[in-house]
């Protein structure tokens, strides 16, 4: 079996690689099928997914059985001004991979986001709820989903949110660093969602990839909180001397609008391979304990 992973320098792809090299995760061992698999990790320098001819030639050359697309333009505010780049990476890139995968009969796992939803209400969004993004980032990610569905018959679209892990930049590392340096933080308290440990997400992606349970999935940590709650727990678990105060999103004056409520319900996981995602607080504490 051959598995191609794009976005190789990102935190999710690096987590997938780490789990496979260790042959297990905190949630348990990975399937033995991966032990004898050829893993191909590519960053943008190796493969520009926005170029259809490059993607088709690359896929035809290596003929992977599974493609896991972790590549994305994730700077939410910058997407508002650099919308063509966001469109190319978040929409055209997945389309190209979907077309190439369909030609050789490969499965495609495409990672998407909670930002495809408008963010109104107080009930976690299920996979059948209609998306309505309010930012360029969310709009380009949704179009990427649509292109995958239109061009590939063997797809898994996996929406996640508030991702953090051992590799790269993320909210947990940012808060820990700022807390040590400043001693006081003001954090948004009017947006709610699900913090997600990258190791938990990677484990479920690898498990899902071996099945034929195609469709749209939500895969996030259990439970919900605000960014303020999230930051407060990071500071508490890190045992850093720092106070955290709530603030409004409006006071930040950011370029892109964020959904006020984007909590996701992992219904499809429960109905297929099983939902082993941990409670967000439990996973966060174990993660921070390992950093100390």
From TrEMBL:
Entry annotated with the keyword Transferase: no
Keyword Ligase annotated: no
One of the GO BP terms on file: dTDP-rhamnose biosynthetic process
Annotated Gene3D superfamilies: NAD(P)-binding Rossmann-like Domain (3.40.50.720), UDP-galactose 4-epimerase, domain 1 (3.90.25.10)
Pfam family membership, one: RmlD_sub_bind
Pathway: Carbohydrate biosynthesis; dTDP-L-rhamnose biosynthesis
Keywords in alphabetical order: NADP, Oxidoreductase
GO MF annotation: an example: dTDP-4-dehydrorhamnose reductase activity
Signal peptide: none
Span of domain RmlD-like substrate binding: 1-290
EC number assigned by the record: 1.1.1.133
GO cellular component term, pick one: cytosol
Domain of life: Bacteria
Family: Belongs to the dTDP-4-dehydrorhamnose reductase family.
Function according to Swiss-Prot or TrEMBL: Catalyzes the reduction of dTDP-6-deoxy-L-lyxo-4-hexulose to yield dTDP-L-rhamnose.
NCBIfam families found in the cross-reference section: rmlD (TIGR01214)
Name of this chain's protein: dTDP-4-dehydrorhamnose reductase
Organism: Clostridium tyrobutyricum DIVETGP
